[in-house]
Amino acid sequence: MCGNAYDPSVYAYWEGPRAAGFINMVTGVELVGDKAIAAAGEWQQVMESQRGSDYVIDLGFACEYTFDEAAARLFRDVRISRVIIGGGVEGPQCG
């Protein structure tokens, strides 16, 4: 029922080690521009070709690292639209 109430986004999560004071970071890209939409589409194709469409629909990529390298390559030239840094920043809720 939200219609066009928000822009879809893709996020990357980094969990900082003890040496970084356990500070975590989330970066996000709104999928609104041509580059962002194209990168998301290509990333989806990569995942579906190896794992099938249910893997993408069920957000299987959110809790494992298999396709992170492909995402980093495909989104490399896409402008980041959000950065959150802090000790209480949480990543995807898995399991």
UniProtKB/TrEMBL annotation:
Protein origin, superkingdom: Bacteria
Protein name (database record): Uncharacterized protein
Source organism of the structure: Kushneria aurantia
